[in-house]
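Postdoc handover notes: sequence design on the structure in folder B. Input tokens:
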């Protein structure tokens, strides 16, 4: 009984992972196109300004385009990171190569990989240091859930 239940659960997890990855990849493609369009828009505005020969500050016209590009680039970066996490991979901090999550050193450049802690792990560490231990399992569960929620908000 248990075996089949676990099997079902595993399959669902795998399907969710694939769907999530596909969604993230689509987001990356979309954002790349949006950035491309913005580059064109900036070029067009610059050229029109040249043709008009008016002494206006072009930066005022393209300021918003720049912040949009910043936003889309950040979203691409986040999506790439999430895809890595989904596949138990991470990025080398030095050469940005895709490496396994448990690699202690980068196979490409040899850089030592220091663990980047999540908000949840940091908070758990703090609790340990402060020597605050939950009185019972129920309380521990509530604290953990709160931390996880906080972690997901970042
Ligand atoms: Zn490296």
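Designed sequence:
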């Amino acid at each position: 009984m248990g075996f089949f239940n676990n099997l079902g659960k595993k399959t669902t997890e795998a399907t969710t992972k694939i769907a999530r990855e596909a969604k993230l990849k689509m987001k990356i493609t979309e954002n790349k196109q949006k950035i491309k369009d913005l580059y064109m828009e900036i070029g067009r505005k610059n050229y029109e300004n040249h043709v008009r020969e008016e002494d206006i500050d072009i930066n005022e016209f393209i300021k918003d385009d720049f912040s949009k590009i910043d936003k889309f680039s950040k979203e691409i970066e986040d999506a790439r990171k999430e895809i890595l996490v989904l596949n138990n991979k991470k990025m080398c901090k030095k050469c940005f190569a895709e490496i396994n999550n448990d690699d202690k050193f980068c196979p490409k450049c040899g850089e030592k990989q220091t663990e980047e802690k999540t908000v949840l792990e940091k908070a758990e560490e703090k609790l340990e240091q402060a020597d605050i231990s939950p009185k019972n399992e129920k309380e521990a569960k509530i604290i953990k859930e709160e931390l996880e929620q906080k972690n997901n908000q970042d």
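Context for whoever picks this up: Residues 92, 94-95, 97, 106, 108-109, 111 surround zinc ion (CB under 6 Å). Don't rerun without checking with the PI first.
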